[in-house]
Amino acid sequence: MNLQDLEILEDDFDLFVALNDTEKIEFLFDAIEQGIQASVNKQVSKLTSTIPSHKEIARVEDYQIGGTRLALTILKNEIHLNSDKLRAIRKFVNKMINDGLLLWPIKRKKSVFDMYRYFKAYKLIGRVGPVSSH
């Protein structure tokens, strides 16, 4: 095994650092024997197989409410709304409630990913029939 000929670039090194000791040895062995790309592909496929594919961790969507953008982040039982105008958030929440979603406001702090001025978080309690016909 000749490690002097092995060149690990920055992106590949980030993956390497995330591996445990046994996986690092396997990574280096595969990189020398099969090439760096094959080794990266093998470790990435192993990592992705440990994440349950049927469960969605978070989903982010952007909406246009009037002339204002609204970012919606949906977690397992929470909904986070983010916008430059509080009126857009209220309008969207009213629409969700009218469509039958039972929401409860919760206190959450804005994260670095929440780039708009206003932030509101709600716990998703359940779903009923639509409150409004429009």
Short structural summary:
The chain is of the alpha+beta class.
Describe the structure in your own words.
With 134 residues, the protein is of the alpha+beta class. The chain folds into two domains: 3-49, no CATH class; 59-127, no CATH class. It has four helices and five strands. The chain has helices at 10-18, 21-34, 36-49, 86-98; strands spanning 59-65, 68-74, 78-83, 101-106, 118-127. The protein has a five-stranded antiparallel beta sheet, with helices on one face. α2 (21-34) runs antiparallel to α3. The longest helix has 14 residues, at 21-34. The protein is elongated and about 70 Å long. The protein starts with 9 loop residues before the first helix and ends in a 7-residue tail after the last strand. 10% of the residues are buried. The model has no long low-confidence stretch (mean pLDDT 82).
Helix content: 25-40%
Distance N to C terminus: 69 Å
Number of discrete domains? 2
- Beta strand count: 5
Strand content: 25-35%
Largest beta sheet: what is the strand line-up? 1-2-3-5-4
List the main descriptive attributes of the protein structure presented here.
134 residues, 27% strand, five-stranded antiparallel sheet, single chain, alpha+beta
Please give the structural blueprint.
Elements: H1 10-18, H2 21-34, H3 36-49, E1 59-65, E2 68-74, E3 78-83, H4 86-98, E4 101-106, E5 118-127
Antiparallel strand pairs: 1-2, 2-3, 3-5, 4-5
Helix pairs in contact: 2-3
